[in-house]
Design brief:
The structure holds 3 protein chains of 3 kinds. By secondary structure, chain A is mainly α. Chain A is 69% helix and 0% strand. Chain A is built from 15 helices and no strands. In chain A, helix 2 runs antiparallel to helix 3, helix 10 packs antiparallel against helix 12 and helix 12 crosses helix 13. Chain A starts with a helix and ends in an 18-residue tail after the last helix. The C terminus of chain A is likely disordered. In chain B, a hairpin with a 7-residue loop joins strand 7 and strand 8. In chain B, helix 2 runs antiparallel to helix 3, helix 4 packs antiparallel against helix 5 and helix 6 packs antiparallel against helix 11. Chain B has 2 domains: 45 residues, no CATH class; 312 residues, Cytochrome-c3 Hydrogenase, chain B (Orthogonal Bundle), CATH 1.10.645.10. In chain B, the strands form 3 sheets. Chain B has a 3-stranded antiparallel beta sheet. The radius of gyration of chain B is 21 Å and the shape is globular. Chain B has 15 helices and 8 strands. Chain C is an alpha+beta fold. Helix content of chain C is 18%, strand content 13%. Chain C contains 5 helices and 5 strands; from the N terminus they run αβαββαββαα. In chain C, the strands form 2 sheets. A 3-stranded antiparallel beta sheet of chain C has the order 2-3-5. A two-stranded antiparallel sheet of chain C has the order 1-4. Chain C starts with a helix and ends in a 46-residue tail after the last helix. The chains are: A mainly alpha, B alpha+beta, C alpha+beta. Chains in contact: A-B, A-C, B-C. At the A-B interface, helix 7, helix 11, helix 13 and helix 14 of A face helix 4, helix 5, helix 7 and helix 14 of B.
Chain lengths: 388, 367, 194
């Protein structure tokens, strides 16, 4: 219970229950923990909701039009209006769908990202738990999302939904590898898996020290989040809506919220791992953290507004033939540097940064020439015969 | 252990966000790869050719607007040229110049629509689409100044156009001619060198020159396959023999080349409009005032270069005020007959994109 | 270098983000319409109409219905009918303007409105009383005399029947030199514009 007692929310509620209400200790503990979790989860989902509004406005400005601006000042109540609309919709389950899987899929989609939130520090000393295997925990939680996608696609009894789900699972699994390699590199560089420890180890932001890692993280995370240019799973122009075609009402609302909240979670991870967490001058640490997250969200919206989508086989080729070798280069480089300078001071970090930038600028085009192309010719036409 | 596989039949149905109208494709697929394509059309059939037999020649102009509804000026032009060939009417000079200005502006509009929706199919989340639509709005404002309507223009009449351009038209046209090349450069900067666009469209859906000629393809689709054939050059009509312009030709006939053809044709159209504005003289805009046009019995077919291909109206007249038979050679319908050859062996995502690059308009296909 | 095209695209989008949005916030703001706009709310001058029903004959959809009474009652003498019913069915009108083109006396003009939606289909039929009672803002479509004088139907100024036709009010069907079409002004250009 030691880390929780430093938490002001917990100790305030705990003290209230134990002192004023003279409740038994387990009850006070329960309510204290509950208060902490409610604050964190609600804050996170609120930022996710704000991001849905922000994306529509930002993408609108990129397209030289206004986004939603009728409801509330600057249209900020649009998200609430969407939620109310979804609540009022009829909840349709297709007749021959697998009801258990169909109903469970949205929950399985949202729950892991909330659980991954437990280790992310939002400000100086402000976190729910500081696991010393924080990075491993986050990776494990984000892997459950592919299960939810497959459940949704399979249980919908819809050929196109299954198409979308298959594509999604292939893509998500392929992009776990470069992502994990990158996180491994960051762990090696920082010397610890705990997210709080990684922020502490950033004398200069790791964006400068490990640019290759940051680039791979951005690309792989976009694929994990089903964001453009990797949004084949919900390619409106092809499959109508992919694995969420058959969902309506609040279940669709949960998928929608989960998708946008995952982007916020990815932004939080990017801020912690690469942008030096909550550190900064003048402003309070929570505000810096929020600014960094919103910077990431702006870049995510910018990329969404600009780039077209890639085809699924090209996405897989990019993961296996380009990002994976690149992440190995990154890992080897960071490991070699950590062996050379085990406990780097700021000057040594700048030296590592210089070496890493040179290697990054060389490796990105060279590997592209070798790796990422799929041959542009049609597959031989003919149907596979029965295999015995 | 035996595994048994079967091809799936996927129906990209008439209700679909990106089939450019009500078009249906039944794809037989092995996983992601396409084995067979069966296009099904007819969902937008309105009986235009039959309706034309009941209306007199000027009323049919309003019908022709609505066939290829994205490019109605060129539909009008093809029909009116065919009527003039029936009776030997010569349009006035100023009328011909205004026709060509309208047709070339309409070509720019149609290619902007085609490019914007092509990129929407590629998944660029409507940004190039919004930019194209924003510029198209300015040209549609010009059309509103000219003839009071933006899309279904009914501007041309037998013997010329029906009314001269108002005073505010020429400065507005001048402003557009000055701003547009910069805008096309910006659109190209967003798209042409984009690695994702080239990655997805180069080499995909290629049609060779010989196949294109055998399949009767026309328009930018044919020129992208390497065949230099443009009706404005081969059989000039109106004032196309008095303006000079290049005819862009591609090499491989893949989706990327077709997109590039349209962008280059926009630039050529701007040149043609410039030359027309320099050459136009004041004068009457319409050769004959007759409301009921009564040509002698006969038949005529005058093809023009519409934005989508070679468009022509085959008219048979029996000496009365209404055509006896009207048949439209719709370029979109003929261009889409080669879909199976273009798509077999590629993936589902390519089917949508290749169809988009053909620039098919269902109003024209089904009439 | 690989990726430069993507970076260029991102910069183009960023440049466009700094431009003013192109949106017109209807209904508080409206687009400017051209003087020739072919709108709803036809403008009809009952004093010029003779009941010839050329507009009804020329309509491709047949939505104009004219019922006339051959017993006169109109101010001009000789050869005009009194129009009892003049219905235009806006539900099927396509605003092509051929009726306006057909009218030999410049009695019918296109209107300039586009917001005349009604809640019931039956209310979409414009009757003779509607047409007479309305404010007259004729569109300059197919009316070169209005276009030449620079009339703008959206300026709020209405046009009397003396001023909206090709000639002033003194004409007579039995005096051919005063008829419209004499001197064939239809086929000339609107002026020496370039």
């Amino acid at each position: 219970m030691a880390p929780l007692e430093d938490n002001r929310i917990f100790s305030g509620v705990y003290g209230f229950f134990q002192g004023t209400l003279s409740a038994p200790e387990w009850l006070a503990y329960f309510f204290g923990g509950f208060a902490v979790i409610m604050t964190v989860v609600n804050g996170f989902l609120l930022i996710g909701t704000i991001f849905t509004w922000m994306e529509r406005r930002v993408v609108g400005r990129f397209q030289s039009r206004l986004g939603p601006n009728r409801l509330g000042p600057f249209g900020i109540l649009q998200a609430i209006a969407d939620a109310i609309k979804l609540l009022f919709k009829e909840d349709i389950v297709p007749r021959r769908a697998d009801r258990l899987l169909f109903n469970a899929a949205p929950i399985v989609m949202l729950a892991p990202s909330l659980m991954a939130l437990a280790v992310v520090p939002f400000g100086a000393g402000s976190y729910v738990a500081d696991l010393n295997i924080g990075v491993l925990y986050v990776v494990a939680m984000s892997g459950v999302a592919s299960l939810a996608v497959l459940m949704a696609g399979y249980a919908s009894n819809n050929k196109l939904a299954l198409f979308g789900a298959m594509r999604a699972v292939a893509m998500l699994l392929s992009y776990e590898i470069p992502l994990v390699m990158t996180l491994l590199g960051i762990t090696v560089l920082a010397g610890s898996m705990s997210l709080v420890g990684i922020v502490g180890a950033q004398g200069i932001p790791f964006l400068l020290v490990a640019p290759l890692g940051a680039l791979i993280f951005l690309i792989a995370m976009s694929a994990e989040l089903n964001r453009p240019p990797f949004d084949v799973t919900e390619a409106e122009s092809e499959l109508v809506a992919g694995y969420i075609t058959e969902y309506s009402g609040m279940k669709f609302g949960i998928f929608y919220l989960a998708e946008f909240s995952n982007v916020v979670l990815a932004g939080a991870l990017f801020a912690v791992l690469f942008l030096d967490g909550w550190n900064g001058y003048f402003l309070p640490s929570h505000l810096w953290f929020l600014l960094k997250v919103f910077g990431f969200l702006f870049v995510a919206s910018w990329v969404r507004a600009t780039l077209p989508r890639m085809r699924i086989d090209q996405i897989l080729a990019l993961a296996w033939k380009y990002l994976f070798p690149l992440s190995l280069v990154n890992l080897l480089l960071l490991a070699a540097e950590t062996i050379a300078w085990p406990d780097p001071s700021t000057a040594e970090l700048w030296l590592m940064a210089a070496i890493n930038w040179v290697v990054a600028l060389a490796a990105v085009p060279l590997l592209a020439m070798v790796g990422a192309r799929t041959p542009a010719r049609p597959r031989r036409v003919g149907f596979p015969q029965e295999v015995r | 252990m035996t595994t048994h596989s079967e091809p799936t039949i996927v129906n990209i149905g008439p209700h679909h966000p990106s089939t450019h109208g009500v078009f249906r494709m039944r794809l037989t697929m092995d996983g992601e790869n396409i084995l067979d394509v069966e296009p099904v059309i007819g969902y937008l059939h309105r009986g235009s050719e039959k309706l034309a037999e009941e209306r007199n020649y000027t009323q049919v102009i309003t019908l022709t607007d609505r066939m290829d509804y994205v490019a109605s000026m060129t539909n009008n032009q093809a029909y009116v040229l065919s009527c003039e060939a029936l009776a030997g009417v010569t349009p006035t000079e100023r009328g011909m110049y205004l026709r060509v200005i309208g047709a070339e502006l309409q070509r720019i509009v149609s290619h902007l629509v085609a490019t914007g929706f092509f990129l929407q199919d590629l998944g660029a989340f409507a940004t190039p689409l919004m930019y194209s639509m924003r510029e198209r709005e300015r040209i549609l404002d010009l059309f509103e100044m000219l003839c009071g309507a933006r899309i279904t223009v009914s501007y041309m009449r037998i013997g010329g156009v029906f009314q001269d351009a108002p005073a505010e038209f020429w400065p507005a046209l001048r402003r557009i001619l000055d701003d547009f090349p910069a805008y096309i450069d910006e659109l190209e900067g967003l798209i042409t060198d984009n690695e994702i666009v080239t990655y997805r469209t180069k080499g995909v859906g290629a049609i060779s020159g010989a196949d294109a000629i055998n399949g009767s393809l026309t328009g930018p689709v044919l020129r992208a396959s390497g065949v230099s054939w443009d009706v404005r050059v081969a059989a000039p009509y109106d004032v196309y023999d008095r303006v000079t312009f290049d005819v862009p030709v591609g090499d491989t006939g893949d989706n990327y080349d077709r997109y590039l053809m349209r962008i280059r044709e926009i630039r050529e159209s701007l040149k043609i409009v410039e030359q027309c504005v320099a050459q136009i003289q004041p004068g009457p805009v319409r050769a004959t005032n007759a409301m009921l046009f009564r040509p002698p019995p006969g038949e005529s077919y005058v093809p023009i270069e519409a934005p989508k291909g070679e468009l022509g109206f085959y008219l048979v007249s029996d000496g009365t005020i209404a055509p006896y038979r009207m048949h439209v050679r719709a370029p979109s319908l003929i261009n889409l007959t080669l879909m199976k050859q273009m798509l077999v062996g590629w993936k589902l995502a390519d089917a949508i994109v290749s169809f988009g690059s053909l620039d098919v308009n269902m109003g024209e296909v089904d009439r | 270098m690989y990726g430069m095209g993507i970076v260029k695209g991102l910069l183009v989008t960023l440049k466009n983000a700094r431009r003013k949005p192109f949106t017109t916030q209807y209904p508080e703001q409206r687009l400017e319409q051209a003087a020739r706009f072919r709108g709803q709310e036809f403008t009809w001058y009952v004093d010029r109409c003779t009941g010839c029903a050329s507009c009804a004959k020329y309509c491709p959809l047949g939505i104009i219905r004219i019922e006339t009474d051959p017993n006169g009652g109109n101010e001009q003498d000789g050869g005009t009918y009194r129009v009892d019913t003049f219905d235009i069915d806006q539900a099927r009108c396509m605003y092509c303007g051929l009726c306006v083109e057909a009218c030999p006396y410049d009695a019918l003009h296109m209107g300039s409105n586009f917001e005349a939606s009604q809640a019931r289909r039956a209310d979409l039929v414009i009757t003779k009383e509607d047409l007479i009672g309305r404010e007259k803002h004729p569109s300059t479509w197919f009316r070169p005399q209005l276009s030449r004088e620079g009339y703008d139907p959206f300026s709020g100024q209405s046009k009397d029947w003396h001023e909206a036709g090709r000639e002033s009010g003194e004409w007579h069907p039995q005096r051919p030199e005063t008829l419209p079409g004499a001197g064939d002004t239809r086929a000339t250009s609107d002026g020496d514009y370039r």
